[in-house]
Amino acid sequence: MRIFVTGATGFIGSALVPELIGAGHRVIGMTRSDAGAHALTAAGAEVHRGVLEDPDSLRAGAEKADAVIHLAFDHDFSNFVANCEKDTRAIAALGSALAGSDRPLLITSGTGAGSRGNGEPATEDVFNLDHPNPRLASEIAGQALLEAGVNVSVVRLPQVHNPFRQGLITPLIQIVREKGVSAYVEDGDNRWPAGHLSDVVRLYRLAIEKGERGARYHAVGEEGVSTREIAEALGRGLKVPVMSITREQASGYFGWLALFAALDIPASSAQTRARLAWQPTGPTLIADLDEARY
After folding, report:
1. Vertex 159, ends 186 and 106: CA angle to 5°?
2. How far apart are CA 37 and CA 61, in angstroms?
3. Would you give the DSSP letter of residue 284?
4. What is the C-alpha separation between 262 and 93, in angstroms, rounded?
5. Model confidence over 13-43: pLDDT tens digits?
6. Looking at residue 5, what is its pLDDT?
7. CA 80, CA 91: separation in Å to the nearest integer?
8. Rounded mean pLDDT of 234-241?
């Protein structure tokens, strides 16, 4: 297939492009920069100049492709709500280019959308419109396209990691550096799901090759890693003390990250593994944190 990939030079995208090309696909990678264009060319991909804020550039890329994988997202979490709204507009633009065809559009969301809110792991067959995570907007936009006849499916992401980046933990590392202590909220038993980068990109490939219209897939290798374990790993890596703080102290310590710090958001990938014969094999989150170069 000829696959248009937004976010093709990002953390996940730069690993996904060679995964797709290695499987025999042709990739059209979107980038806004000369450096990104050079990287895509070196990887063997076709370059498409575009930005999330320009719907025409998104449509133009999608119109050239047999399938679309939408990875691009503005990861300035201090403006998270606005950036989720921006993503809904990007998804709508991509969908408009695919309307009237069966060409697949694979979008990206978070595993929280599959949580029932009762402490049980999120699952692929749940779409919780009441979940507080603003990233839910991406799935709402995808659902609207699905109902309009577009072939949409979703990959829901946990904390995606390797030794160099670890989702929300990457900005948390900077907070720990600044505070001189690695903190978790109360007993730290709340859990975050995780997936190794190599497993995540393989899932995206399988989902675009074999995925079903309307399906939701969880890129989860570990159902839940406690925030206490994460804080302890950061304490070891940065050689700072580890301590518990109260919920009232969380905003002062974590800043914007306090929105997530106390959430218990485990997630299962059992249905995804069964549907796509996907078996995660990468290192654990804590193993990667212990290997990280602080």
Report:
1. 140
2. 14
3. P
4. 35
5. 999 999 999 999 999 999 999 999 999 999 9
6. 98
7. 16
8. 98
CA-based torsion, 107, 195, 42, 53: positive or negative: positive
Residue 53's identity, in one-letter code, is E
Q: At a CB cut-off of 8 Å and minimum separation 6, what does 289 contact? A: 161, 166, 169, 230, 233, 234, 237
Whole-number Å distance between alpha carbons of 254 and 249 = 9
Q: Residue 273's CB: how many other CB atoms inside 10 A? A: 16
14: tokens are 């730069």
- Residue pointed to by tokens 């995570």: 133
Nearest Cα neighbor of 11 from 114, 192, 163 is: 163
| Total Cβ atoms within 10 A of residue 54 | 14
**Residue 287 CB contacts under 8 Å (≥ 6 apart), including other chains:** none
Phi-psi category of 255—alpha, beta or left, where left has phi over 0 and alpha has psi -120 to 50?
left
> What residue type is 1 in one-letter code?
M
Q: In 10 A of CB 185, how many CB atoms?
A: 23
Q: What is the mean pLDDT of residues 249-266?
A: 94
Which amino acid, 161? H
Please give the distance of CA 257 from its chain centroid, rounded to a whole number.
16
Nearest to 268 by CA among 127, 115, 107: 115
Q: Which of 194, 198, 197 lies closest to 220 in space, CA to CA?
A: 194
CB atoms within 10 A of CB 50: 23
Backbone phi, then psi, for 194, in 5-degree steps?
A: -145, 155
The band of 146, judged by pLDDT with boundaries at 50, 70 and 90, is very high
Q: For 238, phi and psi rounded to 5 degrees?
A: -95, -5
Residue 152 has what pLDDT? 98
How far apart CA 145 and CA 90 sit, in angstroms, is 12
Distance CA 155, CA 83 (A): 18
Phi, psi of 243 (to 5 degrees): -150, 155
